[in-house]
Amino acid sequence: MLSFNSFPFSSLSNAQLFSNFNSAPSNLNIDPNLTKVLTDALSSDFFDSLEYKYYTPLQLSALNDKYRASCQLSIFHVNVRSLNANKNKLVSFLFCLSFKFDVIILSEIWSANLQYYQNLFEGYSFFFDSPDIKAGGVGIYVSQKLNATQVTKYDSLQSVGPRIFESVWIEFGKKKSYCYRRFLPPSKHIYSAIY
Questions:
Q1: What is the model's pTM?
Q2: Backbone angles phi, psi at 64, to 5 degrees
Q3: 23-67, pLDDT tens digit by residue?
Q4: How many CA atoms lie within 13 A of 11 on its CB side?
Q5: Which conformational region is residue 75 in: left (phi greater than 0), alpha (psi within -120 to 50 degrees), or beta?
Q6: Which of these, 3, 35, 65, lies nearest to 195 by C-alpha position?
Q7: Mean pLDDT over the full length of the chain
Q8: What's the DSSP call for residue 188?
């Protein structure tokens, strides 16, 4: 049976925990502009107003009808638990909708046959980071109307040594908007992925 003491950081005081999450190693080269963009985005009142729930295709289509005029970018995220095994369910669900998302983000795409899914969704480009093991991985389908490209300049944020997490950065639009997805497999310790 698990006890409180078996959880990561359980032996740290609140001050020590806060210190661990708020200090970066001195050898890490973090882009201050990226830090500001992410901090501003996450502290926005807009994100506080979002609802994170499960929806049927009918409910999701109704939400789209209600908000589409004020929406500049539509994003869908799902933990697909193997794109190879669940591609038909994903395609069927998205086909039932009365609209198409601009960006489709997938967690845990796993590693099987990823090269075959470049054209799973017509009119989308597929960017992915496959895992080093069978499970894990992230993928992003982006509408070709957005002219997206994969960005590698933030790959240096990955720790030196064995890969801790999988991530994909994409850039699109005239104002260089970014979309990012990072996945930390359950087998990895969260402390090793903080930076």
A1: 0.69
A2: -60, -45
A3: 555 555 556 676 676 677 666 676 666 667 788 899 999 989 998
A4: 1
A5: beta
A6: 35
A7: 76
A8: S
Report d(CA 117, CA 124) in Å as an integer. 11
List, in order, residues 6 or more apart from 71 with CB less than 8 Å away: none
Q: Is the dihedral of CA 111, 113, 115, 116 positive or negative?
A: negative
Using DSSP bridges, classify how beta strands 103-107 and 138-143 pair: parallel, antiparallel or unpaired.
antiparallel
Reduced 3-state DSSP string for 2-29: CCHHHCCCCCCCHHHHHHHHHCCCCCCC
Q: Is the pLDDT of residue 101 over 50?
A: yes
What residue type is 124 in one-letter code? Y
Number of other CB atoms surrounding residue 142 within 10 Å: 25
pLDDT at 1: 43
